[in-house]
Amino acid sequence: MTKIDKNSRICIIGAGPGGLSTGYFLQKAGYKYVTILEKLPEVGGLCNTITFENKSFDLGANYLTPAYKKTLKLAREVGAKLYSESHAYCFNPADKKYTSLFGQATKNTTVWKFLWQSLKYFYERWRASKHLPEAGYAGVVQHAELTCTFDQWLIDKKLTALRELFKVPITLMGYGALEEIPAPYALTYMSNPTFFSLLWFGAGLPSIWPKRFIHGFQRFWQQISWNLTVITSVDIQEIKRGEKITIHFKVSEHKMNELIRSERKMEFDHLIVAVPLTLKIVEDLFTNKRTKECYLTQEERYLFGKVKTNPFCMTTFILEDTHLPHRLVNIMPVPDIGDVFIVTQQFEGNPFVSFYSRTETDDVPSKHDVIEKVKDLYRLMGSEYKGEYYTHDRWTYFPHVPVDMFKEGFYDRLEEMQGKNNTYFTGGLMAFELIEPILNYSDSLVKKYFL
Q1: Do 189 and 105 belong to one domain?
Q2: Which residues, 6 or more positions from 227, have their beta carbon under 8 angstroms from its beta carbon?
Q3: Which of 4, 198, 278, 361 has the greatest number of beta carbons closer than 10 A?
Q4: pTM for the whole thing?
Q5: Measuring CA to CA, which residue among 451, 447, 444, 448 is closest to residue 18?
């Protein structure tokens, strides 16, 4: 492999965790000319933070566990402070009763069986780590015991007593039913450090995990971006790839109170794509806005055409009359798609309450229907508030492929595309839609191709 000159001009498209972390690692490796282009006015991607009554609230990514070693290292480097989250409970809308996470996890099994299988999980997860790459999923296809759903993996390993526990971090957090999510994704998420903190946290024992950023996840990424060259509010008009990468884009710039729309054309030696890698998004990125000609290769079109997402809605209300007995509440049994999955009242005495609702990939529910379901739930939880929502967002979340694509070697083909046409890819699809795996992948990408 030809060594890349550190004076090379590199363009990263996307200023979310994948793009910013890649830029950060390239800069640390000595690359001087790295430019990040972002279509939104702010950086952070799915890490979105707002402030209400002097407190920061994350509408997207939120928690850190002991497994977040690179994220925690970066947080120390930029001085981002953290605090510990309160304990989680489950709420059943049918009987309006709260249950501890441990109580919910053991409701269909005995405590001793649950504890024994928890110990066994540590061993089986350690064994699985031998076949899971440090970053990405190339080569996983060679291990049949992993190319199955996570539920099938639990059955094969005789760990079915843990199903109810795993429904909370996996299904309720937006990654799909245990019968759907491929085992490699779930095992990446449920590393042994994360599983241990889940058990400890669920048992209600004193714990410092999970943690949140005091000023929010987005503000952490803003700190990362301060020493990087980031151009926001970019509308890419054309990307031409060859010996050089030529990008033509429009950008909005403020000069005092005046908004100026200008056009630019920049040339680069290498391109790193750090956007959600669905066909719709990538196709739009590589389509000439004037001629409508699409410059994707046949392989890129095929692979990204197999990618699915699990979108979710985040709706917040200011509920002055609501004081949840537990500030992090999982709705169990697992609700239907479209209903509320999780409720958080992040700070005691602060009336900002968040509601997470999962939707289908191709389903674009009306804002009215989602909000009405949220209102139905918060009334069940004791609120009489009849006002309007505070914020409402629908996020494209968890780009992934189903089990059959793992079996067909999807990730091996994906990795083989790296570097072709001087183009590289990073982000949630490559690693798993979780901050730490994304950082691991970005770091690995830089080390493999740029050092």
Answers
A1: yes
A2: 27
A3: 198
A4: 0.96
A5: 444
